[in-house]
Amino acid sequence: MGTSIRRLRVLWIVLFAVACGAQDEGNDDSSLCTINCAGAGGAGAAGGGAGGASGAAGTSPGGSGGAAGVISGGSGGASGNAGSAGAGGSAGTSAGDGGGGAGGVLPGGSGGMTGGDGGTAGTPPLGEGCTPAPSGSFDTMIVTGTGPGGNYTIVQPTTLGEGGFKHPPVAWGNGLATSPTEYYALLEDVASNGFVVIANPGTGSDPQVVRAGLEWLIEQNGSGEYAGKLAPDCAGTIGYSMGGGAAVGSGSHPAVKAIVSIHGLQDASERASGPILLTTSDDDDFVTKAMFVQPCYDRSTVQPTILATHITGNAPSFGGHIEPLGAGGEDAAPTIAWLRFWIYGDQAQREWFFGDDCKVCTAPWGDVQKKNHDWE
After folding, report:
1. Which of 14, 10, 327, 27 is nearest to 206 (CA)?
2. Which of 55, 65, 107, 209 would give a disulfide with 78, using CB separation of 3.0 to 4.6 Å?
3. 370 phi, psi to nearest 5 deg
4. Please, is 116 exposed, middle or buried when counting C-beta atoms within 10 Å of its C-beta (0-12, 13-18, 19+)?
5. CA distance 185 to 283
6. Mean pLDDT in order along the chain per 10 residues (376 residues)
7. Euclidean distance between CA atoms 108 and 55, whole angstroms
8. Element at 220 (helix H, strand E)
9. Which H or E element spans position 205?
10. If phi over 0 gives left and psi between -120 and 50 gives alpha, with beta otherwise, what is residue 52?
């Protein structure tokens, strides 16, 4: 391991310890939680079912709020903070530490249950995107000093709205001690597929700062250079390491249709509004699969979710963690495929995730886990 990697590892360990030592108090207004380096809390109730009227919030104390479906799912039920209401439902009846449940994006079903695991909410119809896929690739450009406070970076197609195309907004979360510049190659690859990517300022990410960038970008569809050129209800969140956890946490935004966490920390995957792809590798000894990625997968109770491990055969090291920096390494292709499949409904990407012989099921990938969907 070179001197520069050693120094970076030491810096990351120090900052990582500070971030993970902070108390996870959550954010009642946005139903987001900050980075959770411990195990998942007790699960609250989740709404389920298709059709019907909005339901009441769950009555269980404590735990994380349940997530509602994004297409035809139920209204969210969850324990409230001393009786605070979950969106789309009436107020909770018992105090607890969990955040409010997220409401359904479209008309919901019956309300949340009391306690226990959440019900199954609706998922996007297989193969149906919320905006048509582009016919080709786009030239890209980078805009700095933009977004909330003029502190964000946007990586986007050079020409927007060509032929009436609507560009899905995607929010990116940086890893700890890094800034968007470390990911330009990956983000330009994503943008070349028609996405407008807003990356938060360094040095690191939390769900609130990633969500703030996404909400700002969605608002730009109403005026200015982005007016009428975005697909504001067809958003995605992606990120790496600390930013991967932030992508999951900010993925509770109701416009989000796809989430990718690359070697990421865990966050409230049970509140996600879109399908989740989690990637890791067998040689990452920093954000380890067992301590961070697997718990995030386990917490996902509603959305289609996959955990895929890049098999290198190498001894675990810090180098295994930073391999996605730059162009994204082996994680780039499945990241883009996930966005294209769930946002565009691009059937050419189906081979990445469906069937026993899917691309993330075979070398150099392995130990794939899938749930909350029919993956045949």
Report:
1. 27
2. 65
3. -135, 145
4. middle
5. 23
6. 47 44 36 37 35 35 35 35 35 34 33 33 59 95 97 97 96 95 97 98 89 98 96 98 98 98 98 98 97 98 98 96 95 98 96 97 97 97
7. 8
8. none
9. none
10. left
